[in-house]
Structures are given as structure tokens and as C-alpha cells.
């Protein structure tokens, strides 16, 4: 079965919402090995990508990164601007922050962002960080949260309502060191269900690995399983999630599950103020609070999640971010 990465899912998501809500045309950009490609061949490739662009009108939403070299992205962006198009850079990940070994690339990445007319960043924390490190783009829009398009028919919502139990769902690969925190969960009293393959042949009490599931299947399985959706990782990952948006978080909410997030999470304030679940400081606190939760408390979380999830299931955060970016560029009051 073809595994679709989270990065690919999120870029497809933005493209689909932009096409539906703003009648956008998609430009096909693929990741490929450009090593050894001649300037002439690369220019011809890029000319083909932008061939449908109208000259002197319109706006291009440039999703970053393309996972091609930064120089490649910058060259394509400048070509789009040569068509006298406005450019909004929609930042999904900053590779200089994702991988500690790439931190030296940060000045070059910010220089590239500074070419944009407006930029959409995941969180206010990310906006502040980029400003402090040289970002000069006038219009900076905060995304706040990922959407996750998922349709639960009204007649199915009650019949498939998540059940209260002590299951910790995790939509990540526990075979990876950064997500191997199951060792710190009290699996004598809790169950963990991880939505990944068992590449390391793990055999741990109360740890279930489902194998890879397509997104829609996983969302339905999350709802059927009930319990909680956990956002967690090693220290570096949690630090980065303080600046970024977690696709896991939106997946859990779209499925209807109350969530558990670290206090450092960029969406912790949204979770707390909307009563979407627990904001915690440690896995010890997860162990204690999940075991102490009551069915009545769980029902309150479910009601809050079901209300808030309508925004995520219908792409409202992406629509809002793009709308605000367009107004920032074209409304002369800005």
C-alpha cells in the first residue's frame, strides 16, 4: 500500500481547499533529484510549471518547502514574480528547524521568505522567531491550526460517538526514537494504540500497532476506538511543535477525540480555552490524569470537540489564513 507522508497530505490539503474556496489552479511541482541538471533543462522545467500563469494579474500561493533544494525554490519563486504575480509563501515546515544539523541554513531560508508579498506561518511563536532572525515581510499571517477534511454524516455522529476508555491513540511511528515514549506510559493501566507498521517487531504489553492505514480509514478507526489522541515526542520535537502546527492534533479532533498536548505545543492555548482535552507538562501527568478522568468529564470534552471540529472538517483555518493574506496584499488600508 502506498504510504502518503504527512508533508504530502498537508500540501494536498491546502491545494484542494484553495481550488474549492478560491477557484485556484494548481501548479504541479514535484520533488526530484536535480543534481547534475543543466541550467537550460531546469529553466525549461520551470517554464513548463508556470506556463498557465496569467501575466500581470493573480496571486500564487507557494507552499514551502517543496523538498527540493532551497536554491531551486528561490529560482521558481523569482520566475513567478517575473510574471508580475503576487506571491504568498505558505510555510509548512522550516527545514533549518526540523533538523538540528540544518540550523546553519536559517539565514538563507529567511532571505528566501523575504521575497514574498505575504507569508503564512503556523503560529505566532514562529512569526516572532522569524522576525527576531531577520524576517522583513510586511504581511505575516498566522495559520493557527491544520484542517483535516472529514465528513461524518449527521445520522452517524451519535451512533459512532467515541467511547470513554483509557486508550491513548498516537498517529505516529513509535519505531522512531523521537516517538518511542511508550516506555514512559503506564501500560499496566493504560493502553496505547499506534497507527504505524511494526518495523522493529515490538512486543510490548498493551501496545497495539495497527499497521499503516489510509487517512480516512485511520480517522474512522480513531473514532471507533475512543479514548484520547496524544501529541508527544522527544524534547527537540516538542520544542519545534511549540513553533509549528501538529497535523496529528487536527486528525484527532476531526475524528472527534479529546486530545492530550504538551504545554509547549503551539496549539495548547486553543485546546485549553476550547475545552478540547488536557494540556500537560509530562507523561507522568498523562498517566495520572487519564486514569483519574471520569465518564462525565469525557462527555464534556466530547461535546466541545464536536463543536470545534466543524471548523477543521470544513477547512476553515486554511480558508481564513488565505483570505487574510489576500486582504493584506490587496486592501490598501493595510
From TrEMBL:
Alphabetized Pfam families for the sequence: Gtf3_C, Gtf3_N
Q: Which InterPro entries match?
A: Gtf3_C, Gtf3_N
Which intervals hold domain Glucosyltransferase 3-like C-terminal?
168-325
Glucosyltransferase 3-like N-terminal domain location: 5-145
Q: Domain of life of the organism in this record?
A: Bacteria
Q: Which UniProt keywords apply?
A: Transferase
Could you identify this protein by its name? Glucosyltransferase 3
